Amino acid sequence: MAVTSIDQAAVAVSDQAEAAPVRKTGFRRRFARFARNRLALAGAICLLVLLVVAVLAPWIVPYPDDVADSLNFDAVLQPPSLAHPMGTDEVGRDVLTRVMAGARWSLSMAVIVLAIAVTIGVPLGLFAGYYGGALEQVLMRITDGFSAIPALVLALAITVLLGPSLINAMIAIGFVWWRSFARIAHGQTLSRKQETYVTVAKSLGASDMHIMFREILPNISSPLLVAISLNAGYAVLTGTALSFLGAGARPPTPEWGQMVAASRNYLPGAWWPSLFPGIAIFITVVSFNLLGDGLRDYFSEE
Amino acid sequence: MRFLRRVLNMLVVLLFVSLLMFVLVRVLPGDPVGAALGDGATKEQVEKFRVQMGMDKPLQVQYLAYLRGLLDGNFGVSLMEPRDVGTIVRERLPATLELVLCSLALAIVVGVPLGILAATHRNGPVDQASRLWSLTGVSFPNFWAALMLQLVLGAALSLVPITGRITGPPPEHITGLYLVDALLSGNFKAMGDAARHLITPTIVLAVGPLAQITSMIRSSMLDELAKPYVGFSQAVGMPRFLINYKYVLRNAFSSTLTLIGFLFPLMIGGAFVVEKVFAWPGVARFGADAILANDYNAIVGVTLVICLFVVVVNFVTEELYVALDPRIRLER
Fold first, then answer.
1. I need a labelling partner for B188 at 20 to 30 A (CA). Which of A74, A221, B32, B88 fits?
2. Which InterPro entries does its entry note (chain A) (predicted)?
3. Are A268 and B151 within 8 A, CB to CB?
4. Which pTM was predicted?
């Protein structure tokens, strides 16, 4: 296995060079190790492409007017063709254009949901694990209570009560999702708080806040990163499901779940406006899962 | 003692859920009165309705009254259908249970052997396929998978009905589960009818759990196979299949049990979407409609019943887990 021996050589060389840290080589080496997992690399590349499409959508879509609510009644529900590779929808908009524009909403969904969930969940898990006792009991019972309600059900209820909109759906899902991160942070903190660096920091008189957020948190960041990547896919799935049920994005927003909901009435005759947004969701979620899976392997080797 | 403490824990979780949902539906800005009476209601009508529903009283008084009602089996009146929420839930629960149980059964019956095959033939074609499947199977948006299956199996191939639970008259009511009732009363026409309706929603709901069970069984069996006792048993001449089935599999089943506790709430959540797409007359579709219509009592009632099931399933799987694995019992 040539790859392995080169890699081992690289490890040996960089071990010698440890005294004089060369950041770039370190990153390259790490990236090379991550990239050995072809599936994970494919996931990362897919997400990068999605990100580029999401950012550049207004400039690169084939029919910029079709992103919102333009009406082309002379081109309604045309099957895929050269001019419209994914066909046109029920009011004659180019489906490819809208699928590309939708990348923006699904990626925002993932980012906002996880930002909220991590901000609430990780500190709660850290507190519960670090302080223990009554605080831990109360916090973890609350987490149990939240976990007993299916995520989709609670998120749907909160979204509708806040008023159906895409941003409210993001807030609601984020508010439901913190429990996963509280659990992980709690478990990880429990296993780390006995370690030497914590004892040392304590004996040096570091504050609890310093120990939790400066000593423990950096050390549990790898499992958290894996969880973030794996949860991003589920967050996107839940978000599109809420929009499909009519609680998230509203027409004419080109959100994938909402697009499937709007086009399902034209099944079975016109399958293309329902098929392609669904494939886009699938590819996005698979990419997040591949990346998360690859990261897990990467960190467990470490 | 341990048993009592766990039951008490369950009750605390349920009480918390009831409080959370009760407060959420009343504190967040949704408008139940407007939703119930429509836009044309006068001020007096709105006021009268609020008094009728007890919504003029302070929140804690309302909550205590609600809890007292629950003790009498009174869930409050639904706004969508003016009947007690408990009655509606009882009528609709069997449809959802039938769907979820069939999906769980499908996921286990296919997922467990697939995981075993993958682990025992590591890096073979089955293993590669199962690994790919465990990453992709959890990534389908279920509403879309449902529509696409309806399109292919229902509309294009006409193999199965597209929506609904049964076409002909339902079998005699015994348990409410059509398949079981039809079997018990020997009504095989209704049984076939119900089974044909069940196929597509069951597949859609089972796809994700099937992938998760496969990968769980695979990885826990690989861990187990790597342990020294397996090599030792082989060295003393124990046949491979005996090792696999007598020791390794038993350990793998324990991990599947924990997974079921985790999958159950996910599947109920999935049923909210799947039942909507298949016009399935279950409690999950009622719950989804209730949420979308701001039907307060129905939202709290359905959530509570669902959580009761989730908590009980978790309890049972954990007890079974302990019963199956003597090491855990000894530690206590």
1. B88
2. BP-dependent_transpt_permease, MetI-like, MetI-like_sf, OppC_N
3. yes
4. 0.90
